[in-house]
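Convert to structure. Protein one:
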Amino acid sequence: MTTHSPAVVWFRRDLRLHDHAALTAAVSSHDKVVCLFVLDERLLSGRGSSPNRAWFLKESLTALANEIASRGGELVVVRGRPEQTVVSVAKSVDASTVVISRDYSPFGRNRDQMARRALNQLGIGLEEFPGLLAVEPEDVTHPNGGAFSVFGAFYRRWAQVARRPVAPAPGRIATAVTPFSSELQDWRPERPDGTLLSGGESSALKRLDNWARDGLENYSRDRDRLDLEGTSRLSQDLRFGLVSPNQVLALAENCDDPKFVKEVAWREFYTHLAWHRPRVLRSPFRAEYAGLPWREDGESLAAWEGGRTGFPVVDAAMRQLVATGWMHNRARMVAASFLTKNLFIDYRNGERFFMRHLVDGDVAVNNGGWQWASSTGTDAQPYFRVFNPVLQGERFDPYGTYVRRWVPELSRVPLRFLHKPWTMPDEVQSASGCLVGRDYPSPIVAPEGAVERARAFFARAGER
């Protein structure tokens, strides 16, 4: 049954038409809808903002506007505070309801609560639908009613929950006319210095199709190789909702190997954890490590951020991040381990730097990854797991392709010295055109003894 009063479809992190439960419900039950996106300055230029994400968002919104227009509709993009702007748009068309894809972050939940109160005062409803996750937080809870704190137990329960079918995109979107003109064309975010993947649902669907056809079968074999295109490259698409996790899982679960499905589950695990225990976004999950004596070392932090640590895999990873807005997952673990367990710098410094550059920067997922690497989070492995950057390079960049691409000053260094250039004899350095300490930095921390230093560091915290 359709109603004559319009509905407002408030897009946020769900910039797609396929498998969009809120949009599908609105189009099927209302004669007309208003498709709306609000440019919120708190997200565009606030503490957690990123020029890379803003650029990718602009591309994705432009693509979404074109897709909606091809179906007879219009995407209205308005700048302002959502609790005011959404209400104004809904009131202008005498809407009976606003529909959204449910958000799980503390910021999103607070924003939606304020919008709900303002809408309800006018007799307008706010309806939430699933879409950002494959499985809702209430459907995966520990027997005691709280969040799972161990991924293995979470995954076993998560995998048992029946998933909703993937919904097609609506064929037509009849739009109610509003007095608001879209500000999308006037919004000109800063152009990133690096080269990013293209935004928009169509580009994301192509990446998903290519991955399912060419990459999924070899995922277990290639996913940790830094020198290969062995990962899906869908993280930014999931972050902005250009594809839904449901769409990804529908393809991935046709494969016999569950490893990729588990990677999707990791994203949901960290989101569920932050939903149940939002304090983890501010402090360590493991409370006993809240007082770790992290070092204040601005010079070493700057060297890490700039890819000048003297450890080639770490430096390649950091330069890849700055140049592309993305870093290989194996490289993320190595770089994060190095900052926290070789340099003993607070993981929150790395967390902030990643959020500033990552196109796929997600508060819960980024925080979960950093706490995992620094052993302050839910990881079952304790603090003595330290990623040796030399061994990681030799194992996962065995031909030196990754390092040579991102650290070109090492391009002529023989492979046997590439991941530990400080061991090159003087004559090899001269022949390679790379003098350590001049053309490429000497290691900023001793390469040996990292595990022993990490044990001592965490042991001091236990004595407090």
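Protein two, convert as well:
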Amino acid sequence: MHKVIIIGGGISGLASAWFLREKGWQPLILEAGDPAGGSICSRREAGFLLDTGANSMMLKGEIVPAWFRRIGMDGEMIEANPLAKRRYVLKGGVPIALPNGPLAFLRSPILSLSAKARLLGEPFRPRSTDPDESIAAFVRRRLGPEVLDWMVDPFVSGVFAGDPERLSLRATLPRLAALEDAGGSLLRGAWRARQAKGPRRVAPRLVSFRNGLQMLPLKVADLLGDALHSGCIVERIHREGDLWVAEAAGQSWRAPRLVLAVPAYVAAQLLTPLHAELAAELDAIPYPSVMTMALGFAQAQVAHALDGFGMLIPRKLGLETLGVLFSSTIFPGRAPAGQVLLTAFIGGAQNDIGARPDAALLSTVVQEISPALGISGTPHFVHARRWQRAIPQYERGHLDRIRRIDAALATLPGLAFRANWRDGVALGDCIENAAALSEGESWRDPVG
């Protein structure tokens, strides 16, 4: 009998297993895919190195870098090109660099003079009485509609594939809400945060690995060894006395602890026979579909310098493409000599791509990005990956839903959740949450 079963071998499940093993637990990980890694997928093809899911991760704080050192991945880590600090937004048919300082902001054509003048009144605007304000409502109130249309909406749709009118500010961007809470305004909150005494914070770093992001889950899977069972689709979970039982393909495993490190809709399917109300809450978390497209061009085909992280496309323009990353600029070794690699995204909460053929979506993306980037001809390399259920959406009501889920969880002893449908969608959030699980009071005694 095992001490803990973890269902799901994405980064949440793998990291949870690692941190629990450090505390003395002997985890068993059951993962449907092979290899493990969930949405972290890298591949080499035609001389290109591409990530078909997550493309990079932001390192903040010390938990994740320290873990990389312990598992021997720090030597494989590469930091993004400094040019990646430049982000473009499409406006007026051309990519415009987002301002990176007060002087650049004043000169930037992204916002009108009246919109810039409106920002001066931000510290004097009242707080909202809505305890679960949407991102869009918050930005309109504090910063104005132009900031929402040309800066925040493209960021939200590009990063979260979401709709700022529906996403909860406090659930999706809690640090932004905290600034207003601390200072009554974003400006005063930011000032107080800078003045607050405390340990010096390390600047965030955008990173990947020499052979793509998938090096990380593959390394952890290798270190976990026989504790990981890949290609194992769990069909049923149930209780036998004080034990949790997981069943798959005629096999069963028992343990007093169970961690569900799977998407919310998968957890809902497994839990429906045990707790229908909890399953319904999980199943209500939306996941829009997104397609990623890796596009290879000869460098001579692209007039734009591609001197940045990528280009976001505001929904206001009526285009379908969410944005495009300049992948061969961000990290080295992503394209052969004389070639460039772009990664485009289409779909999301504001643009349901349904079952539209891949070829039609590819045609749309190429037609939409070509004028802005000065692309001539068609890509000579294409790799498309459709994620039917991509990024979980923390819509308004999400935090209340999480509270109801936690209340229901208390009725199921020994069960825990670790996945990106709660407490942050970023890879770094998933790793930090996995570390926090192992530090919980109920996990301190692996023989208890």
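The mean pLDDT is 94. The longest strand covers residues 290-298.
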